[in-house]
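hey team, just a heads up i'm posting the complex here instead of the shared drive bc the drive is being weird again. everything in one block, sequence lines first with there labels, then the predicted structure for the whole assembly after. its two chains so it's a bit long, scroll down
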Amino acid sequence: SAVISQKPSRDICQRGTSLTIQCQVDSQVTMMFWYRQQPGQSLTLIATANQGSEATYESGFVIDKFPISRPNLTFSTLTVSNMSPEDSSIYLCSVEGTGVHEQYFGPGTRLTVT
Amino acid sequence: KNEVEQSPQNLTAQEGEFITINCSYSVGISALHWLQQHPGGGIVSLFMLSSGKKKHGRLIATINIQEKHSSLHITASHPRDSAVYICAVWDNDMRFGAGTRLTVKP
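-- predicted structure starts here --
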């Protein structure tokens, strides 16, 4: 299994500001995923980040709003830009495991935008 | 209609009760996950299965591929089992159910 850490664990931010969330994995992984979970909702995939290439965004998510970096095989960041209260969610980093269809999740970042 | 449906949405049980959470899906899948999400938000993968049954401690997960249905059972439930349980299926991408919020009262 993979051990994933995220920073910050939670934050309260003002409208119009940006927050960068960090995701660190204890082993090298090819694919990292960023999810959003709005209050009372299921998880929604924001983007898939492979090292050395641009992230692939899902429908409804754009790079200008959620820029992602993937500088190496153990680390990624997600920035939530120009935040509004609608961005208040839990943001989760996830990585693929070594087994087929295995996936592991980070502890999440709880973001509140006021 | 959501491709992954869970029932019930909310479940309250007394400590010691046997609990069943159900998941039905409408797409062809390669694998199904049961995840546990604690109040802080972090998610733990409980099971990944593509056929049959798996058991880990007091947790049992079953899947019927023909009926496109899976169940998660918790035997001798305990207040520390209180969490949101999420069913997720792998069909090129991960697709998530809305979750079942379980509260186990002492």
